[in-house]
Design goal:
By secondary structure, the chain is α/β, with parallel strands linked by helices.
Length: 227
């Protein structure tokens, strides 16, 4: 529940931006940065996906900035919901998660751009204006990776085999690496324990792990590199 709605008489003149991030200091910093621009304004903010979707349905902002790592449902699920309900509303990801792993997934979910948080102050204003004009905003390295996948023969090396995982499998893999038990992952992802067990079985198969212990060790190493 930390949802805030801002009312401004200039709303009809400015691009209305909604922020979804569970770090209050980051929301405050983005608000200060974006509000300096005469053609942009913050119309609301939220710290979780469920409250954010309700507020977006009410406020109908022009663009939403979404973090992928949220308490409860992930930002990726929020982007899918927004894309399905409001296909004309662009979403822009602002995340600490590696863009080489998550940017393509975010774009497939419906996002129009991806910015790493450490680059936010330099790029967020340009990114907002780009996605509002119908462009995509991603680093050239991400574009190159996507193009390479399109023209490849499908032989994916082990170094990028994490791309074989579905969004839900990747979320399970990441939470496993964070040390959560099956029951904890089940609760966080709001699915049954057997569903999580199924995801883990698929992960083992796709990444060619012989045991759950091998999966756990690799997941811990992968998460440590992400951090």
């Amino acid at each position: 529940m930390d949802t805030k709605i801002n009312v401004n008489n200039e709303s009809k003149k400015s691009v209305r931006v909604f922020i979804v991030d569970d770090h209050p200091f980051l929301r405050e910093g983005l608000t200060m940065l974006i509000s300096r621009e005469p053609d942009l304004m913050i119309c609301g903010e939220s710290d979780n996906a469920d409250d954010a979707l309700k507020s977006i349905e009410t406020l109908m902002p022009d663009v939403a900035i979404v973090d992928l790592s949220l308490q409860g449902r992930s930002g990726l699920h929020l982007i899918k919901d927004v894309s399905r309900k409001f296909p004309e509303m662009p979403t822009l990801v602002l995340s600490m998660l590696d863009e080489m792993v998550y940017a393509e997934r975010a774009l497939r979910a419906g996002a129009r751009g991806y910015i790493m948080k450490q680059e936010a102050t330099k790029k967020v204003i340009t990114a907002i204006r780009d996605v509002m004009s119908g462009k995509l905003f991603v680093n050239p390295s991400v574009t190159s990776k996507i193009m390479h996948r399109l023209v490849s023969d499908g032989n994916i090396k082990h170094s990028c085999s994490i791309d074989l995982l579905s969004d839900r499998e990747l979320e399970t893999f990441k939470l496993t690496g964070n040390g959560l038990s099956t029951q904890q992952i089940s609760k966080k992802m709001k699915v049954g324990v057997k569903t999580i067990e199924t995801y883990r079985a698929r992960i083992k198969s796709k990444l060619k792990f012989e045991s759950s212990e091998e999966l756990l060790q690799y997941a811990i190493q992968w998460v440590s590199r992400e951090d």
